[in-house]
Description:
A hairpin with a 2-residue loop joins strand 3 (246-252) and strand 4. The chain has 11 helices and 6 strands. The protein has a 6-stranded mixed β-sheet with strand order 2-1-6-5-4-3. The protein has helices spanning 4-34, 37-53, 62-86, 115-121, 126-137, 142-149, 153-170, 177-193, 196-202, 227-241, 288-291, and strands at 203-212, 224-225, 246-252, 255-262, 265-275, 278-285.
Amino acid sequence: MPTEPQAATSDLDHAASVFASVRPRLFGIAYRMLGSSAEAEDIVQDVWLRWQAYDRSTVLDPPAFLATTTTRLAINVAQSARARHETYVGPWLPEPVDTAADPALGAERGEALEFAILLLLEKLSPTERAAYVLREAFDYPYPQIADILQLKEANSRQLVSRARKRIVAERREPVGSAEQRRLLKAFLAAAQTGDLAALEELFAADVVSYSDGGGAVRATRIPVIGRTTVAKFIRAFAPRFWIDAELTWIEANGQASVLVSRDDAVFALVTVSASAQGIDHVIWVMNPAKLAGISLSLPGARAPHPSDPEPS
């Protein structure tokens, strides 16, 4: 018969095993709601600590309990994050994650991972965002979504429906992954040479370029909008930005992207979102804090530091 300390150890080992089995999904929920790998990791760690301390004998469905705890914590963080994003220096972009090297996002589908979707989710209320992520990325049934959000089932359906309609209204049908990669390759070739005509040909009329430096490095502090304006903007900094730069292709947030480095230091992640009209969004993540994790995708590279020389 096991002693009391042995029983306690066995119980904690079982709790750890249960938690580990659902951890990728918990991270996936939190990341999609917040667009921040660091904040998602903090939430998952908090959930683990709560799970350790909880009276687990009262929990009938541990995965549901853990998903509920994660979602509610993420809603709380999202509410405070909205205020922080409003005072963020320049455009706020999600922190990129390497979805090829790290499948820990844990979704049955890749929904709500792309930069364009995460930016649209930012416009929803935290509860709408949670309902959409639970349904569209993880296929939770509406009754369970209602339980997690402490709502009636009809209300949870309304939240998902409203979120879907807003995203569909504001987002064109995206091109496939092969075409997105082709367009990114063509964009990089034109951007490096400052080929104005080639850039304009690739862009949709209302293309938007977002540069996230977070105030830590030099980057434009407003989105640049329009085919000709964006093309001229990119041509203007081409001679400085791309000099001696090395490009490494990765998969970030489920889409082809490149890490831009110099002297083994990553200073930008660049990707595009596109539709039948052409490239709709150009994404430049340059905030060193947001590049720290994704920089590990490049062997031998080091994360950028604000004291590094400016790339542009």
